[in-house]
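Predict the holo structure. Ligand: zinc ion.
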Amino acid sequence: VIPSAPGGQAIPSYLGIDVGGTKLALAVGDAEGRILARRRRPTEPCGRPETDLERIVADGRALLAEVGLAPHEIAAIGVSLPGPLDPVAGVIHNPPNLPGWKEVDVRGPLTRAFGRPVHLENDANAAALAEWRFGAGRGFRHLVYLTMSTGVGGGLVLDGRVYRGAGCQAGEFGHAPVEWEGEPCACGQRGCLEAYVGGAAWTRRLRSVTPGTSRVAALAGGAEHARPEHAVAAAREGDDFARAEVERYVGYLARGIVPIVFGLAPEVVVLGTIPTAMGEDLCFAPLRREVARHAWPLLTERLAIVPAALGGDLPYLAGLAAACEAQA
Ligand SMILES: [Zn+2]
């Protein structure tokens, strides 16, 4: 059933598509983030992007049929994709996670299939837009979004608009160094924020420094299997090693955030994935104190540093948020 506005007018619906490295998520929903129908399957790129896109079109058609909408009845289509990509040309360049996808025109086939405006957004920007429109950043004009999953992704909404920067490369806070000559990063530089607070980097570190006697090792079934969630759980139980690891993590996160606060004066910093799992006691309360210790009160007094709010709905809402940009 399609919801109607009080006047009996149909609320515009959007089709959102999130192409992840492993999962494809599609949703039909509205500009308020209400999801009418959704589906999810493994991405399984076959090596021929034309075929992959045909399958995505088929999924989109099936989902629209499920809610009784014809393609011409939706307002727009949004696609959230791993970068680098060009939202103006509608082309994705060479994402490391999608084998065979090199300089692929994504917008062309989708526009031909559905006959509606199609907008592409890189996944970090799409997530930032989703948190801004539907989640923890709702109601703010200036938002910084950072997510600490395997790597560190970032997106900006400034003055109520996504900010993409030159070559659409803005938001790469994960690769701004927090230590000169520090830990090596997957990008080839040293000392990047990601090399301290990215999930892959923290996992690698925990496996090399966790003492066999730590609660982290016990929870993981051996230090060699340690992961961030074990450190977080052990810290919550009061394990000294885990507490020190969590403090170190929060310290580096603050080093990454302070220059952003000085440079952009955001109203809200939304943090996803590892910080969200760490929660208020282990992450947000000490992080706010640490940021306030190193940035002017003028900037921090009005600054909210909060966990991401969309959880498992994020992929669906990222696609829908990208779709809303098609007409913005
Ligand atoms: Zn890096």
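The CA atoms of residues 132 and 138 lie 5 Å apart. The pocket of zinc ion is lined by residues 175, 185, 187, 189, 192, 194 (CB under 6 Å).
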